[in-house]
Amino acid sequence: MALAVVVVVVGSAAWWGPLALRPFSFFAVRKVELLGVRYLAPESVVAALGLRRDASVWDRLGVLSDRVRSLQGVVEVDVSRRLPGTLRVRIREEEPVALASGEAGLVPVGASGRPLPYDLVRRSVDVPVVERAGRALVGALEVVRTADPAFFGAVSAARNGPAGSVELELDGGGTVRLAMPVDPAVVMSVAAVQRDLAARSQPWRELDGRFAGWVVVRKAKGEGSS
Predict the structure, then answer these.
(1) DSSP string, 105-140
(2) Rounded CA gap, 130 and 109, in Å?
(3) Residues 6 or more apart from 79 whose CB is under 8 A from it?
(4) What is residue 26's predicted lDDT score, i.e. its pLDDT?
(5) CATH number at residue 124
(6) Residue 107 forms beta bridges with which residues?
(7) What are the average pLDDT values for consecutive 10-residue runs of the chain, which has 226 residues?
(8) Which residues, listed in sequence order, are joined to residue 96 by a DSSP beta bridge?
(9) Which of 109, 169, 119, 117 is nearest to 139 (CA)?
(10) How far apart are CA 217 and CA 215, in angstroms?
């Protein structure tokens, strides 16, 4: 009988342990560590936790995670404790893929097409500028970003092109045309051609990746065509 009582007590420790330790001031939350926060304002993340004055590291972490997850721009969150008095909040933010016109100027937009609450004064966002953040256009930009981040970093602006295509303007000039839905393999092929032309100092005005298996290079005016 005594052995059975010991087994029950030990087995339920995961449940009653936090309840028993929560009242002790030794485990009061004194510090919040934020990991992965690049664009969101740190104070907004801490505020989202909704910590009470008597908050303990033994409070339910799932509740805290849900509160932070409700912030727009948060994709994943994990809250853990580091004894005796620290909460560690690890976040994965939604990456901006474009800057679109908003009521107060340019607004970062994610691949979902929704505006993101990132302060451009606090943290610069180097992504293409678009006139309208349509779902298809920002989705195409997300494919480009994922397929070749370096090439995506050279895109200064994007817009919808004719016949279901997307047009990308690169830093320093030059237009890239891609068919939608954008194929990652085509993005990598176009990027490889662009780098090869740059390495050979060959001027061009347009790279057209809308043709299966081909990247058409249209040279700068006065340079002929190919």
Answers:
(1) EEEEEETTS-B----TTTS-----EESS--HHHHHH
(2) 10
(3) 49, 61, 64, 65, 68, 87, 88, 89, 90
(4) 72
(5) 3.40.50.11690
(6) 100
(7) 41 50 74 95 95 92 96 95 94 94 82 88 88 89 96 95 93 94 96 95 94 89 56
(8) 110
(9) 109
(10) 6
186 sits in which H/E element: helix 184-199
Please, is 152 exposed, middle or buried when counting C-beta atoms within 10 Å of its C-beta (0-12, 13-18, 19+)? buried
d(CA 37, CA 197): 37
State the total domains in the chain. 2
Place of tokens 């097409």: 113
Give dist(CA 207, CA 21) in Å, integer.
Answer: 65
- Whether residues 53 and 108 share a domain: the answer is no
The CA dihedral of 206, 150, 76, 111, to the nearest 10 degrees, is -10
Q: Judge if 69 and 131 occupy the same domain.
A: no
For residue 106, the model assigns a pLDDT of 87
Domain housing 12: 2-93
Rounded CA-CA distance 160/43 in Å is 37
Of 65, 93, 121, at which residue does a domain stop?
93
| End-to-end Cα distance, the chain | 89
Average pLDDT, the chain: 87
CATH code for position 66: 3.10.20.310
